[in-house]
Amino acid sequence: MIAESRRLTKAYMGKKAVKEVSIKICGGSIYGLLGPNGSGKTTWMKMMTGFVKPTQGEVIFDGAPWNYRAKNQVAYMSTEPFYYDFMNIGMVGKYYSDFFEGFDEKKFQELVRKVGLSEEMKIRELSTGMMAKLKVIATLSRKALLYMLDEPLNGIDLKARDEIVDVILTTTSEKNTVIISTHLIEEIESIIDHAIYMKDGSVIYECDVEEERMRSGRSAADLYREFM
Ligand SMILES: Nc1ncnc2c1ncn2[C@@H]1O[C@H](COP(=O)(O)OP(=O)(O)OP(=O)(O)O)[C@@H](O)[C@H]1O
User: Which PANTHER family does UniProt cross-reference here (predicted)?
Assistant: First the structure.
């Protein structure tokens, strides 16, 4: 087990965004964190990465309570854009190298080409799909045990979604663990091992996708339609 969320709770002004969420994250798997807008996915991820302080509960990472060391082992991609307009893609690589210990600039440069971008492209001129690809490959070029991608497929066309799904699958190995939050289940269904369903701040169901299919004949998308 690489990480654990123990009864994690976050309240904003008395209203609970995440309610006693307990999840065990096993190493070497791809997880889908599935739920509609406002179900608490982002808040939960931010608590797991140390960006948001839990109101209650605990995060265990690599066998110990979350601490500063975990910061370099968890690569989180937020939904907010975080590059400066004046940069080009090559500068994003340099910026990440300065900022993140273990950022693999060579891998980043390879991935830039693989997804059809180039280092000369200016941030302010990127389409939404190009920006989405850049955010994902920059995050995956960090050396980490756990990658958390918050809504990597939102607001982009099918081709860009396929490219992102492909790059997630081909750049991570069985040593890495990936958690992808989304409500676009069909797009990620083929690559996820586990599905975690969140609604109104709580985990309402969790399963191994293949086992569930064998046992009940239901796909991750069937379950989503049933629950949400
Ligand atoms: N900083 C904040 N202050 C107050 N309320 C917040 C804050 N962040 C999140 N919330 C509330 O917590 C709830 C869960 O939000 P969260 O963003 O975690 O859900 P989500 O599943 O990631 O949804 P989305 O896909 O829309 O981002 C929402 O009702 C939201 O309004």
Answer: ABC TRANSPORTER ATP-BINDING PROTEIN ALBC-RELATED
